[in-house]
Amino acid sequence: xxxxxxxxxxxxxxxxxxxxxxxxxxxxxxxxxxxxxxxxxxxxxxxxxxxxxxxxxxxxxxxxxxxxxxxxxxxxxxxxxxxxxxxxxxxxxxxxxxxxxxxxxxxxxxxxxxxxxxxxxxxxxxxxxxxxxxxxxxxxxxxxxxxxxxxxxxxxxxxxxxxxxxxxxxxxxxxxxxxxxxxxxxxxxxxxxxxxxxxxxxxxxxxxxxxxxxxxxxxxxxxxxxxxxxxxxxxxxxxxxxxxxxxxxxxxxxxxxxxxxxxxxxxxxxxxxxxx
Length: 276
Hints:
Helix 5 runs antiparallel to helix 6 and helix 11 (236-247) crosses helix 12. Strands 5, 6, 7, 8 and 9 form a 5-stranded mixed sheet that branches. This protein has helices at residues 8-16, 34-37, 50-55, 71-78, 91-104, 108-128, 154-161, 180-186, 214-217, 226-229, 236-247, 249-267, and strands at 3-5, 23-26, 60-64, 82-86, 135-142, 147-148, 164-166, 190-193, 221-223. The protein is built from 12 helices and 9 strands.
């Protein structure tokens, strides 16, 4: 097959199920795995370049259903290209997208294996968190304006799975804009701030001005990398682990300590019994 992928999650899924060799074009934002970054660019899922796509002679164009009503996507269908639209806004949508893409490119068994691996890793993380309390969490993606992860998104669902209560889950908006007054009143115990990236020292700047927030007072402010946290797709279990480790670092330290002790005990030879 010759497949054009119009979104990063689609590209990652195709490579994860072993169909990377069939991908002949990707969106401007597709950069994982590294091999995808070297493929021809065809615009974005909202503004695909029809001339470039047609020149690639694809047998299948796969994009996101949020673009299903866009003129260019309808035009691709009218031009005779096979078009598949998927939805990766939720965890169920991510799993369904992987399965549907697998079926479309003849990789059903591989897609099912990827889904099982995700579910297995989710279960392992849940086991680690089985005794962890729920903590009030604010997850922001930017400061100007203050945009947070809202209700119904896969990130909101990951916060819940990580034993967190999303304080931005206050209305139907997926990416609500919050005031600092609201954040202070909601008293988040953990703040996940995408503006910080992976720079731990950044928390001493913006948030240090609000010591009345429990997360600030207790030093529970963490950055997170955009990749893979903000990328839905087959690496969603990695995103859950990133979030869970920041909400409940003590739970994962305890597991690491237990594993280290177990490994050390295996390396010590059993004491030989001697007869008198």
